[in-house]
Specification:
about 80% helix, mainly alpha, Serine Threonine Protein Phosphatase 5, Tetratricopeptide repeat
């Protein structure tokens, strides 16, 4: 009997020790190093898988400086992978978690990188004011540390991602030139030249614009070339060189298709979904394992206590059988109570699983209903087609007033009376102003909106500025046009 009890205790100890936190931390560190190597080899999907596995291993580990540092590094790198594949909100969450870990560790370098990466993520969400705040925080740390490489990168990103987007072209030119003067690598130099070309184009300095844009064409990246050919097309068109404009348009379309093929990947989203599901499953398994372990310990303690009591009763009260029977009955009631508690817990788990499935089904139905509503409108279908690919077929469209009225009504349905709230705030807005705001509210790019309005992209930028200054009376507001519309 004693040997069986000892064997049971040893099993319990083994269950507790088999999943050592220190061992999981070392495994997570190995996965992080492997992910960094894969990221350097441009294998972003495999790298993201390593970072997700590493974060999963850190779940439940004691919060030490070593664990915080490793968690921050994993989150920051995973956020970069999400950002690369268009998962901007998920990328921002990961960078914010990384920033929190580095802040607790007082890691200046980690905070500097996390601030910059957070700025990149919110800039991709077109939240330019918030992006500038994160870039400024990173810039202050880089200045204190005299990190020249980071300062060069930040000059370029602030000039491109904030000042150019918010219309402060002179300041954007100043910052990008500072980045070039600091010395950039070949890829960043091409990006800087492209940015300067676009900035000079917006200031109508076509000579400087063409010089920097042609310098940027040394790059072999289709996405960057596509961005260069667009302003070159506009400049040639404005200068009356229609043959050259046509050539630039063809080159723009060719490079756009190559860029889409290069960057199209849904595997990163699949990996994210799989590991979120795996994390939930792991958490449930951990709960079940802990519950079973507690139950085994309770049973072991109860059996040991019972044996001790039986020995004492046999030695001291050999003839008290009635008392022994009462004691046995009490033990049985306790065991029945334990079984009832276990049964109640299993019922609660099944109920939670059923509720989760019902919530998922409801969310899927709501998503399908929204998609059906949006697919009804000709404006929405045309805009989505232009967002996916610009070609003669998608450019051949006609939109009537009824189509636009239906589009505005659908936008009101989805965004809870958006146009009425917009006109209450800005009663000077005209019919087309409201349509532009509805297109922006639905998240369509400046290029797609300008095509729907049958105007050039730069003319659309000027039109947005006039709406903001003259009809919204928000000339002193530092927010972008898109931020103002999304805030309604």
């Amino acid at each position: 009997m004693k040997q069986r009890l000892l064997f049971l205790v040893l099993i319990c100890c083994a269950l507790v020790a088999c999943d050592s936190p220190s061992k999981r931390v070392e495994q997570a560190k190995t996965l992080y190093e492997e992910g960094v190597q894969l990221r350097e080899e441009q294998l972003s999907e495999e790298a993201a898988e390593c970072f997700l596995k590493g974060l999963e291993l850190l779940r439940g580990c004691e919060t030490t400086e070593k664990v915080l540092l490793l968690e921050g590094q994993l989150c920051d790198n995973l956020g970069a992978m999400y950002l690369k594949h268009g998962l901007f909100e998920d990328a921002f969450k990961q960078h914010q978690q990384a920033l929190n870990c580095f802040r607790q560790n007082a890691d200046s370098i980690g905070m500097m990188n996390a601030y910059r990466n957070s700025g990149r993520a919110v800039r991709a969400l077109e939240q330019y004011t918030q992006a500038k705040q994160y870039y400024d925080s990173s810039f202050r740390i880089a200045s204190l540390m005299n990190d020249q490489a980071m300062l060069r990168d930040l000059y370029l990103e602030i000039g491109r991602d904030y000042y150019m987007e918010t219309g402060n072209f002179a300041k954007g030119i100043e910052y990008v030139n500072l980045a070039l003067q600091g010395g950039l690598n070949d890829n960043d130099t091409d990006i800087a030249n492209m940015t300067l070309g676009i900035l000079y184009y917006y200031t109508d300095d076509y000579g400087q614009a063409k010089h920097y844009l042609k310098e940027a064409l040394r790059s072999e990246r289709p996405g960057l070339k596509m961005a260069v050919y667009q302003p070159l097309y506009a400049i040639a068109y404005n200068e009356g060189e229609y043959q050259r404009a046509y050539q630039y348009h063809k080159l723009f379309t060719t490079n756009m298709m190559e860029a889409e093929e290069e960057h199209s990947s849904e595997a990163i989203q699949r990996i994210k979904a799989e590991y979120e599901l795996k994390a939930q499953k792991s958490e449930m398994e951990s709960l079940h394992r802990n519950r079973d372990l507690k139950l085994y310990l309770i049973i072991a303690v109860s059996v040991i206590a019972l044996l001790l009591i039986v020995l004492i009763v046999r030695k001291k009260i050999a003839d008290n059988k009635l008392a022994m029977e009462r004691f046995k009955n009490q033990v049985e009631r306790n065991q029945n109570r334990i079984h009832e508690l276990v049964s109640d817990m299993e019922t609660l788990i099944r109920t939670n699983d059923e509720l989760r499935r019902n919530q998922q089904t409801l969310s899927q139905k709501e998503l399908m209903m929204t998609q059906k509503i949006m697919a009804r409108n000709k404006v929405m279908v045309t805009a989505q087609a232009l967002s996916e690919q610009i070609n003669p077929d998608t450019l051949n469209f006609e939109l009537g007033d009824n189509d636009w009225t239906d589009f505005v009504n659908l936008t009101d349905l989805i965004f809870d009376g958006f146009s009425q709230r917009l006109l209450q705030l800005f009663p000077k807005l005209g019919k087309w102003d409201v349509r532009i705001c509805c297109l922006s509210k639905n998240g369509f790019s400046n290029q797609v909106i300008s095509i729907l309005l049958d105007t050039q992209t730069d003319s659309y930028y000027k039109r947005k500025t006039r709406i903001k200054q003259m009809k919204m009376n928000l000339g002193d507001d530092n927010r972008s046009f898109e931020e103002i519309v999304n805030a309604v």
